[in-house]
Amino acid sequence: MLNIFNVKNHNGNRDTPSSPPPYKGGGVAAAGNSSPIRGGTTPHAKNFGVGVKGGVKTNFTKYQDPEKGMSGGQLKWSLWFSGRRVIFYRAALIFVAAAAIIIWLFSLWRWVFFIIEIPDARRVRAELARFDDYSIINQRIGFQPVQIFGAQFLASGKDKYDVAAEMFNPNTRSVVFFDYYFFYNNTSTPKQSAFLLPGQRRPLVALGLAGAAGEPVLHIENVKWKKISAHDVSDPKQYQDYRLNFAVTDFVFSPASESGADFPAVKFNLTNNGPYSYNAPKFLIGLTQNEELVSVFRADFASFAYGETKNMDIRLFVPNASAAGAIVYPLINIYDKEAYLR
Fold first, then answer.
1. What is the per-residue pLDDT across 298-312, written as a single tens digit (0 to 9) for each?
2. What residues contact 168, with CB distance under 8 A and at least 6 apart?
3. Cα gap 264→256, rounded to integer Å
4. Which of 40, 105, 153, 307 has a 20 to 30 A CA-CA distance from 297?
């Protein structure tokens, strides 16, 4: 506990207090006296909380209470806060009042704008209540469904048949990807994946069927579309015609009596007149008679370089088959970089 004695302090009767008992310890000198006091009364400190010990001034703020009560530093801050308590209270009131004023001004400002914008809000509600017909716009920017033409069976050998159906993609800037299969006589052909380039028309086929009973029906599933950006390709039709320039020349059909075999034969040359070489290209070859499709074949190559010519020799395993021409359908997605030979 800190004891501070001052001879000028008075009690309640304003009597001068008596001096404390003689100090029997050593080491404390009176202010302004460098020699220690060996006996007599304790000197009076002239400054509050400041004493002299061993010739060195001490401050009460550094005092440590042996009973672990309030230290000198805590006493100093307590006195400082108590003297400024009213200032802190007024500062808190000013802060709360300023915050309330700002919030009320902001609310008033929003209410003014709300009242001003009431006519505009009414017009917006009226516009939302009206429904516009976007069907014409959707036809232009959306995807038009693919068109399927009648499926038919084609004889491909003894008790063997192929089934084919033509399909057309009417979209001029979209590639369509899908899965398909044929259903006939309560039987489904294995599912296959295919695609059609923009504006492309070609047959979809299932080859080597064991029977041809019933009427085949083409089923399409998992249809996906991919838009061709105008920044990449300005004219998709011209782009495709330029790259898929394959020509059929020197077509010859030989009946069984002339081919030296039991079955008719077809020979022709297939030339890549385009400027690009292709990696593992696939082709669908259709033989026609009187502009009608009479037979279909698949032709797969490891590669097909630009300017290269492939000699095609096809046997028709139908004794009475006949063909006057051949149409080649490239199964090449020219919008895929992997299709090109590097």
1. 999 999 999 999 999
2. 146, 147, 148, 149, 196, 200, 201
3. 4
4. 307
